[in-house]
Give the backbone structure.
Amino acid sequence: MLVSDISEFDLIDKLSCVLGLENERRERDLRASGFDVFVGIGDDGAVWEDISGVKVLTTDTLVEGVHFTLNHSDWHDLGWKTLAVNLSDLAAMGAIPLCSVVTLGLTADIPVNGLLDMYKGMAEISNQYGGAVIGGDIVKSGVFFVTVAMYGRALKRHKILTRGSAKPGDKIGVTGHIGCSSAGFHSLTEISEVNYTDDIQHLRTAHFRPKPRINEGMLLVRHGVRTGMDISDGLIGDLMKLCQSSGVGAVVRSMDVPADQYLKRSYPKKWLDFALSGGEDYELLFTARPDIVQKLAGENDIDFSIIGDITSGISKVRVIDECGRDIDISKSGWDHLASDKNSIK
């Protein structure tokens, strides 16, 4: 068996099984010393509690030719996005960023000025959303990559967003608008169908400079929301992960999926595909009881849409149109190991 023969999450399950009982024993030993891991492998980040409070740790890697190309992305935007994807993981758990370390895998032809511009992008997003880069590593590599490990703090143990706590009867919510990022990438790689310069700029900005929803994640947990994740691999694909973790199903109403005017005007026939399956939106996907949703609706500091309902039964996601008919969602989202998806994301 090769990695191309299985999905990313099948591989994660297999690796977790190797650690198995021995890892559980080590976690028990840590708990006896006051270090209690209560969210482990399989969520947006690992979460533990010690005498100093509740902490969150996450990591992400961007690889040239897989996640970005320097023909399309400038160095400053690359620095912004490198930290943004990690900040989004903290937001997806309702955590506050504290610090990060950055590892650079460098080929011999990488320009030093480019790296300086990349770090200026990191400094800009850190100034806006918090956290500090406090260290890292540099290695020689056959391919250029950037890996970030980011550390954050949660408010309280019982105030954290996880993928495994959705309940039948919950409403499904999404912050902001989705689909623009993948449409922006599409406009770079395909013959453009967009005639409006402002529209192209808006879509590409969504792709290169995503906005991590740190404040929104904290607001959700303060209002009692307990289930959430960020949309990095596509709405349907990520909702399926949430359903599998929680042992529930979901129904999404296509007419309620939030897409902005730029996306709909630019791609009137494709906007729903981008919104459902495109990925890299870094908005928050959450579920909550109707009474909590009603309270959230009175908040001015969060923009969200209710797009469907959590159901009982098998972990399956259905998308329906305005007449209640099922819509084909065979393109479910990004899988890092799928053999037919090894082009630039």
Q: What stands out?
A: The chain has two domains: 57-154, 171-320. The domain at 57-154 is CATH 3.30.1330.10 (60s Ribosomal Protein L30; Chain: A;). Residues 339-345 have pLDDT under 50 and may be disordered.
